[in-house]
Design goal:
With 296 residues, the protein is mostly helical. It has one domain: MetI-like fold (Orthogonal Bundle). Helix content is 72%, strand content 3%. It is built from 12 helices and 2 strands, in the order H-E-E-H-H-H-H-H-H-H-H-H-H-H. Strands 1-2 form a two-stranded antiparallel sheet. Helix 3 runs parallel beside helix 7, helix 3 packs antiparallel against helix 9 and helix 4 packs across helix 7.
Length: 296
Amino acid sequence: MKGFKLSPAARREENWGWIMVAPTIIGLIVLNLWPFVQTIYTSFCEHLGFGHYKFVGLANYAEIFQTPEFWKATWNTILFCILTVPLGLFLSLLVAMLLNAKIKFKGGFRTIFFLPMVCAPAAVTMVWRWIFNGEYGILNQVLGAHVGWITDARFVMIACAVVAIWSNIGYDAVLLLAGLQTIPKTLYEANSIDGAGKVKQFFTITLPMVSPTLFVVMIMRLMSAVKVYDLIYMMVEETNPAVTSVQSLMYLFYRESFIAGSRGTGSAIVIWTVLLIGMITVIQFYGQKKWVNYDV
């Protein structure tokens, strides 16, 4: 309101509020906003070394768009999302429903499923590399086969997808469990009186009521899948002939920026990845109007 003035007490409270949020705001600007602005600028430049850059316009973008390896990495990233997100959400919701049921040792099961999130990624990867080892891996011993799960171009993407799904099920299940516990029990009781079975209750009560939480988890998981790098880096060595079959956009960015030394090209790949995430997010928010239920 024009002419409205805060009282001295309210002014002090407002100042203290700004002081309390200042570290977070400064951190976002210094660690997120400014590096992103620099990345945008660098994507239009050629790195000359020792912090010097030469403006080259859209040359970096023209270069990557004409490179088959770039489009292969883009497809690998999209394929990784397709393999991990739908199945990961389904299994996470299934685990959340089981943990929400009346079972013994519920707290122990929750801890077991959440353990992968607190384990060091390097340790997790080393265990899975041993499981998928083509010569003495436990998976091949169980199957009685001799498959190079992380050296064969036909299977390496599937192997990485399995590890990604296994690593994230516990965290996603905890989030979905929180959403399930907000559903009133009276809805199930009334539906049971009407003669509805468990399957019908799932589609008419559980899924609609948990859809807002499911939507948030889906956004988080899709963004994580598009930005995947560390899993592929630790699972597949650079000398592995199958690396091109699983190389993601962020992995290609690492190779271009820190191995090839072409930071301009690497920055262009990052901006393309940001645009890809933006397009996926827009599609998600448009599609959520058709299946997400916010009515309580």
